[in-house]
């Protein structure tokens, strides 16, 4: 990950380099780009679901999801054939929470992931009343094994990322920019509320983008693009001049991100449809089973 020169360090994130984007450990290990994208999507969904169940702040969940994305980048990053997506998801959430005002205990993390992994959908909740509690109960021995694996994976992630776990989420930046533009007054109207809500929704959707927008663009740029598109969709008039340049965003980046944001919902729907009735691999042995299935044909 390379820092970007010339920006306020508090509002910038380390970005992926050309090397990170050109290859990955997973692809070098024989995973197709399609399966790799599907597994990233499933891992991010799992991370989001676990964060919600743990009642963690949105900013911490975003940080954890970005850490998962960063970990699997580049030839020196993690591989889905070696590093279980479920374990990386859990450890990323543990790391992000540890750096916040709302740290989570290993037991809380292990219990939530045992719960989520115990049902076919894995990322949907609440569960059916018929869901057997024994399927996700962690005995004392199972907990200690899960805790040891959580701490081991935490170490692997920190070493892979060179202990650079800084993530600035664009959500608060976007709200500040909306106020600066005069479209989110202290007493917001129904339209300004709708604009803010759609802006945040677009930023949340972008976390799942196959173009990994959160590691290729700075949070300030993501915030501006989300505001631009949300204003068009909601029907809010923004300043007629090229206001995005005020926030150091050029037209080319803005155009690219708007198109990328617009494609997110369609891609997510297609991804869910592709795996309907099947489980996307989140464990190393599940990856091997999926590769054998593909090799043997439909």
Give an overview in words.
Helix 3 crosses helix 5 and helix 8 packs antiparallel against helix 9 (190-206). It is built from 12 helices and no strands. By secondary structure, the protein is mainly alpha-helical. 57% of the residues lie in helices and 0% in strands. The protein has helices spanning 18-22, 25-28, 33-53, 58-71, 85-98, 106-116, 140-160, 171-180, 190-206, 219-234, 251-274, 284-296. It starts with 17 loop residues before the first helix and ends with a helix. It is globular, with a radius of gyration of 20 Å.
β-sheet strand percentage: under 5%
State the helical fraction: 55-70%
Which radius of gyration do the C-alpha atoms yield? 20 Å
Largest sheet: none
What's the number of helices? Answer: 12
Specify the structural class: mainly alpha
Kindly report how far apart the N and C termini lie: 39 Å
Shape: globular
The average pLDDT value, as a whole number, equals 91
Unreliable stretches (pLDDT < 50, length at least 5) are 3-7
């Amino acid at each position: 990950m390379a820092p970007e020169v010339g920006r306020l360090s508090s509002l910038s994130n380390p970005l992926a380099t050309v090397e990170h984007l050109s290859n990955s450990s997973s692809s070098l290990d024989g995973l197709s780009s399609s399966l790799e994208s599907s597994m990233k999507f499933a891992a991010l969904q799992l991370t989001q679901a676990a964060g919600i169940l743990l009642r963690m702040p949105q900013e911490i969940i975003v940080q954890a999801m970005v850490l998962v994305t960063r970990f699997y980048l580049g030839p020196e990053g993690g591989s889905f054939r070696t590093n279980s997506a479920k374990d990386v998801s859990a450890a990323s959430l543990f790391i992000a929470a540890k750096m916040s005002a709302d740290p989570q205990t290993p037991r809380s993390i292990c219990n939530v992931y045992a719960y989520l992994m115990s049902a076919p959908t894995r990322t949907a909740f609440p569960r059916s009343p018929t869901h057997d509690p024994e399927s996700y109960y962690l005995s004392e021995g199972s907990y200690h094994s899960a805790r040891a694996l959580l701490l081991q994976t935490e170490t692997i992630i920190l070493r892979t990322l060179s202990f650079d776990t800084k993530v600035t989420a664009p959500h608060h930046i976007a709200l500040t920019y909306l106020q600066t533009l005069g479209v989110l007054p202290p007493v917001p109207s129904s339209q300004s509320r709708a604009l803010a809500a759609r802006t945040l929704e677009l930023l949340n959707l972008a976390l799942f983008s196959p173009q990994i927008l959160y590691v290729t663009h700075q949070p300030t740029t993501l915030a501006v693009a989300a505001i631009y598109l949300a204003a068009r969709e909601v029907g809010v008039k923004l300043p007629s001049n090229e206001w995005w340049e005020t926030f150091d965003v050029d037209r080319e980046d803005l155009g690219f991100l708007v198109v990328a944001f617009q494609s997110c919902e369609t891609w997510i729907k297609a991804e869910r449809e592709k795996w309907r009735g099947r489980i996307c691999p989140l464990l190393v042995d599940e990856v091997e089973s999926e590769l054998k299935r593909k090799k043997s044909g439909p």
